[in-house]
Each structure stands twice: as structure tokens, then as C-alpha cells.
């Protein structure tokens, strides 16, 4: 999913996760097509992040994002490994 540019893309903030300054543009697509899990924590004092997330991703995504159901990168990798293992077991049967 391609997301449009945002007027805040060039603004910078210190990222506690990575340890250096990053732009909002990076944070809003850190997960390739999804924002960083910490975007609300980091940016809400400077930008209306909730409104941005709702307009770009929709209400359903925002609810899941805020409830913590969003998988981190490692969780997604482990899930993909499990699916591959299961598929290999089925193929061998």
C-alpha cells in the first residue's frame, strides 16, 4: 500500500529505539508499509498522529494498532517460519 507524502515528513525527532534522529517520513513507514509501533509515543506531542493514522490506514487499523495486536518484525518472521514448517510437514505426508 502506497501512502501519500505528509506535511510533517521532514520534521525530525530523536529515536530512543535506534538512538539517533529520524524524520517523521521514516517513522510512518518504518515497517515498510506500516508505521513504527512507537510512532504515537514519540510524535503525539508534536503532531496529531492519531488523526494521521486514521486518515492513512483507516479506523480498523488504528484500533488494532492502539490495542497492540500489531506484530513486531520478529513476531512476523517467527510466524512465517512456523507456516513454512507446517507446509513442509504437509508436503512430506
Helical amount: 40-55%
Strand content: 5-15%
| N-to-C series of helices and strands | EEHHHHH
Can you list the strand order of the major beta sheet?
A: 1-2
Inertia-based shape: elongated
Number of strands: 2
Rg on CA atoms, Å:
16 Å
- Report the span from N to C terminus: 37 Å
What ranges have pLDDT less than 50 throughout 5 or more consecutive residues? none
How is the main sheet built?
2 strands, antiparallel
Structural class: mainly alpha
Could you give a short description of this structure?
With 93 residues, the chain is mainly alpha-helical.
Question: How is the secondary structure organized here?
Answer:
Layout: E1 12-15, E2 20-23, H1 24-28, H2 39-43, H3 49-57, H4 59-67, H5 73-92
Helix pairs in contact: 3-4
Structural key phrases:
93 residues, mainly alpha, two-stranded antiparallel sheet, 9% strand, elongated
Structure description:
A hairpin with a 4-residue loop joins β1 and β2. The chain is mainly alpha-helical and 93 residues long. The chain is built from five helices and two strands. It has one domain (12-92). The chain has a two-stranded antiparallel ribbon. The model has no long low-confidence stretch (mean pLDDT 84). Helix content is 52%, strand content 9%. It has helices at residues 24-28, 39-43, 49-57, 59-67, 73-92; strands at residues 12-15, 20-23.
Amino acid at each position: 500500500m502506497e501512502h501519500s507524502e505528509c506535511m510533517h515528513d521532514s520534521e525530525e525527532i530523536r529515536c530512543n529505539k535506534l538512538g539517533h534522529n529520524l524524520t517523521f517520513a521514516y517513522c510512518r513507514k518504518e515497517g515498510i508499509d506500516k508505521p513504527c509501533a512507537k510512532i504515537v509515543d514519540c510524535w503525539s506531542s508534536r503532531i496529531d498522529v492519531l488523526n494521521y493514522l486514521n486518515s492513512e490506514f483507516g479506523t480498523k487499523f488504528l484500533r488494532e494498532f492502539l490495542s497492540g495486536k500489531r506484530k513486531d518484525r520478529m513476531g512476523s518472521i517467527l510466524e512465517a517460519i512456523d507456516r513454512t514448517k507446517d507446509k513442509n510437514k504437509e508436503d512430506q505426508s
